[in-house]
Amino acid sequence: MLSALKNFISELTGEAEGPKPFEAADYQLAAAALLVHIASVDGDFDDSEKARIRQLVEARFGLEGDEAAELIQAARESEADAVDLYRFTSVLKRRLDEEGRRQIVGMLWDMAHADGAVHEFEENVVWRVAELLGVSTRDRVELRREARDAADPGASGASGPSGPWSRGKDSGR
Hints:
Shape: globular
Largest sheet: none
Structural class: mainly alpha
CATH superfamily: TerB-like
Number of helices: 8
Number of domains: 1
Radius of gyration: 18 Å
CATH topology: TerB-like
Distance between the termini: 59 Å
Helix content: 55-70%
CATH architecture: Orthogonal Bundle
Oligomer: single chain
């Protein structure tokens, strides 16, 4: 607590020592923690999900080897300590533009599809995160479709979504 207050005052006065890797205000840590949360929210954090987090972190943040492993470990610890999603989404909302926030939601959908099925808890978390980040419902649904199609290319086409969330126009109603 005292350390956090000291760091905050140092940042305000411009006396900060420089960025420390994976500090709490780092958007990479916040994004990785949300990925960990999505992967574990259904109660089963399996090897395919662990591998997918690693792939996403490496590809999206340009990290390799030990750096990626460090970020993921810090994210697991941070997520375990968190009481809500706001801790992470507030950092992301401050640090990222609209497209960056959309990409985070896309990463979450990608993670939700990593084990082959989207659990209702995962869907709910993505919905809440998207709301907190200011990503529109339309964008959230489109990003879900894109992640689903990427995870299962055969899912697009005639068997795609229907109803009020589909991309097509109203069919004569």
